[in-house]
Amino acid sequence: MSAEFPEIDLRMLGxxxxxxxxxxxxxxSARRTAVLCVLALHAGRSVSRAExxxxxxxxxxxxxxxxxxxxxxxxxxxxxxxxxxxxxxxxLLSSGGGTYQLHLPPDCVDVVxxxxxxxxxxxxxxxxxxxxxxxTVQDALLLWHxxxxxxxxxxxxxxxxxxxxxxxxATAERHAALLAETGRHEESARVLRGLMxxxxxxxxxxxxxxxxxxxxxxxxxxxxxxxxxxxxTGSRPESPPTPGTATxxxxxxRELLVGRDPVLHRLRRAAAGVALGRGGSLLxxxxxxxxxxxxxxxxxxxxxTPQRSRIGWAVGDSGSRRxxxxxxxxxxxxxQVADPIRHELDxxxxxxxxxxxxxxxxxxxxxxxAGVDLADRAVRLxxxxxxxxxxxxxxxDLQWADPTTQRAWATLTRHTxxxxxxxxxxxxxxxxxxxxxxxxxxxELPPLDSDAAxxxxxxxxxxxxxxxxxxxxxxxxxxxxxxxxxxxxxxAGAPPTADLAATVxxxxxxxxxxxxxxxRAVAFLSAYELRAPGTQPPGCRIxxxxxxxxxxxxxxxxxxxxARAHGILAPSDRLRLRxxxxxxxxxxxxxxxxxxxxxxxxxxxxxxxxAAPDRVVAQLLAAGVPVDDxxxxxxxxxxxxxxxxxxxxxxAVLQQVHAxxxxxxxxxxLFTAWLARLLLRQERHAAAEAGWVxxxxxxxxxxxxMRWTAAHSHERRGEFEAAAEIAHVALRERRISPPWLEELRxxxxxxxxxxxxxxxxxxxxxxxxxEGEHPVAR
Length: 778
Fold this sequence. Notes:
Layout (H helix, E strand, L loop, with lengths): L7 E4 L5 E4 L2 E3 L4 H11 L6 E2 H9 L7 H16 L12 E4 L2 E4 L7 H17 L3 H12 L13 H27 L3 H14 L4 H9 L41 H4 L4 H14 L5 E7 L5 H10 L8 E6 L10 H10 L3 H14 L16 H20 L2 E6 L6 H11 L7 E8 L12 E4 L5 H11 L6 H11 L3 H8 L9 H11 L4 H13 L1 H4 L11 H8 L3 H13 L14 H9 L3 H17 L4 H10 L6 H17 L1 H14 L4 H17 L5 H8 L5 H17 L3 H14 L4 H14 L14 H5 L8
GO biological process, one term: regulation of DNA-templated transcription
Keywords: DNA-binding, Transcription, Transcription regulation
Protein name: DNA-binding transcriptional activator of the SARP family
């Protein structure tokens, strides 16, 4: 930067931090930081105030948003140029004509440096200079210090996080490939393992690691690396990793295992019993993210192996499925059984090697003779090993192990009663297994109960949550530990963060696009209820889903079967996503304009199918569908029914109609009158709405009802003078029907003792007071 300007270093590839001449600046509030990020990623270009409002708050900004932008920019000027006179024009951050511009050379912003390094690497790749490309890619990855724009709110920051995360992943994958191309296979394997940990559903990463040379990464010395394979270094002191980012350090197991004590003790008792000659087989099952693997880690990896016992550990994955017995042999290898048996296992491993990697000899069919033979031989060897030394074998994600391992595991289960052999397997709910035989005692991991979920949130939240915030988190997560941890680090009621959306996406990734689309439709049909914390969304009926998707019930049932098996759908006679945050993510990840269009379409289709009127209205309210002629005509036919069956929903839609003023006067009068009636029934203030109708209607009956409604609304609030004034005006006008005249006279008689002065002088007639012929009555 020229001498005219200070040296600025703005980092957004992690928690946002700014240095000015080697001094770190304090940015302040999250939204002020969001404004700076928008300006920095448009450095050298003017950004309008309206663009900043949309970037920070989205399509529904508060009334104070424009004023807040002015305040944020003013404060940022002082932060960036503290020596600048209050009245002097900004040099780093200027304004004019309702726009703002940040004057920074591109290289001051790490995002720009990262993107330029990626372009340089592409040029080097085209030139065939592999070593130069590797150095450039490493320099690009060293710029990262966590999730991009970590903790910065607003749709702009969220979109940038997603975009930059995808670029980071692609760069890290290229890093692994370049390391392998230059013969650095151990380092390449470490990078791939980090990528697998951060992206467990990326099967191609597993396959690439499996295809790497056998020694790669097996015995390599560990190096400090993030889960994208980059070494976390930098020229300036770094902030600790932000929860939920790619550089996370796993929280302490005591925090993660709140509410799991019975299962934890069951596993540890079983492990201790092996040394005493007691065997067994346990099968732990639960949906993705429920804490199965964490439970295994805490129960078995972090305890001392019982005396004379050995423990073997393996994880099923798509790579191991290519080799018959691959997962089981890996488990036995880690247990380090006696040398003679290990020699026979090595021989068995050689026999199990597929002749052609593209044509593995083991098949999923139970009747495959080669697979059965290998399984039987492995079972005999394992029984010998357990008889020699008590043995604990653990397989995580057994559903992804090769079919021969699964069948051998089922056979071993039948032998554990007479051997010091403990089998512990973990499977994901809904995933099919290659065998239908029993795999031992089934332990289901359910969602956490309210007490355990509350304890987990308090343990991992940066600050103790307020009761209302805690209730919202519990409602959204539905006892799911992974969702609880991520929600505890976010803002209550805010749209799902990019990290949380990525988690939900990963949990839905095993399903087909067809299933995901149907789940999205279920979320849209629950959208109105998602706005009401403290209650579970009632979901929808299959007939309603069929109506809005124009598909048959049987077809929809087939599409939803995998989600039901995986625990994504709650067990209920209605279709409901088990975890509110999944429904919210599916709904809120849809662009706002598209949400309105879908809710309008669904509402009209529900109405055409004869759905209950309050169900139709709830669907239209979910996205605030604008009032049009169709809605006005339909609502006029059903407003009385909705008012009787669902008054709160009726009030919500009628308030929307009244606010938009989009219909003709007759319809506006009809709907506003109903709104006033319902507000009064709900013991809410209805004077404004009733007065609006009374001032415009020409019908004596409706005018009288609305005058009385307004007066009675004031009376109930103890505003007796206001109630009397409305009654007096109405009685003087005499443009209301006789029944309502009498009602207003009765109301005046009730409020008269509460009026100031002396309204009950005995020499005055009651009619004189009521008719307003004496000053006291006025």
